[in-house]
Amino acid sequence: MSILKLENISYSYDGRGKVLENLGYTFEKGKVYAIVGRSGAGKTTLLSLLSGLSSPTEGKIYFDGKDVGKIDRYQYRSRYVGVVFQQYNLLPHLTAAENVELSMRASGKKIAARRARAAELLEKVDLDGTLAKRRVLKLSGGEQQRVAIARALSFDPEIILADEPTGNLDLTTQDEVMDIFARLAHEEGKCVIIVSHSPEVAARADEVYELASLRKKEARPRQNRLM
User: Fold this and answer.
1) 3-state secondary structure (DSSP) of residue 214
2) C-alpha neighbours within 13 Å on the C-beta side of residue 115
3) Exposure string (b/e) for 33-48, b if CB count within 10 Å is 16 or more?
4) What's the whole-model pTM score?
């Protein structure tokens, strides 16, 4: 059963025509998805719709069978969806662990519990205790992206949305980050959805949705299997 389903989704900006038109995608837990397409095809717009930050002009998005437009958006975004950004969006004056702990302040957990959870999540993304105590500015780009992934996992969301998460990384580090996303999907049952221009990222996905250029219908999805 799909965890996310798009039913005839279209989106348009005021007076500027449609950016997305009649999308009918489904996303399942336990898979890595890549959304690809040229600039202007609406990739980031689609990610915004999936995260609940924007609402479609037409059509509906279903999360676990429920219309996202009719449920509590804050709860949806804070409990069920974790977002990873290309630019990391970390606080540079804090350590890796502190960045992850900060995302849990609204959880009601005590400080000790937050620290333990942060350490667990950072270890999950291959950052040891020494790196966890290092300020973000002292970390490499790949290490910062791992921190961002750990932060996105702080509430154990079912869906991970990633916007060009490897865009600033070299190919070796990109492959290591994709290993983490693959583990989250295949070993922990997360639904991982990645927007990317990278052919290498698309090749690592279980399924690829390719958005056609603006005002054209999208191409058929193609299947990819992890090697």
Assistant:
1) coil
2) 6
3) bbbbbeeebbbebbbb
4) 0.89
Instruction: For the chain, give every domain's residue range.
Output: 2-90+156-223
Identify the CA nearest to 161 among candidates 73, 43, 37, 57: 43
Q: Closest Cα partner for 100 from 127, 72, 74?
A: 127
Neighbouring CB atoms inside 10 A of 31's CB total 19
**Which CATH superfamily groups domain 2-90+156-223?**
P-loop containing nucleotide triphosphate hydrolases (3.40.50.300)
CA distance 161 to 28: 13
The total of other beta-carbon atoms located within 10 Å of residue 25's CB is: 21
The mean pLDDT value for 177-190 works out to 96
pLDDT per position as a tens digit, 88-116 = 889 999 999 999 999 887 666 788 998 99
The tokens 């798009």 sit on which residue? 6
Mean pLDDT, the chain, whole residue set: 89
CB distance 136 to 87 below 8 Å: no
For 81, phi then psi, to 5°, come to -130, 130
Going by C-alpha positions, the residue among 203, 149, 159 that lies closest to residue 30 is: 159
Contact 32, 192 (CB under 8 A): yes
Distance CA 224, CA 185 (A): 14
State how far the Cα of 211 lies from the Cα of 18, in Å rounded to an integer. Answer: 13
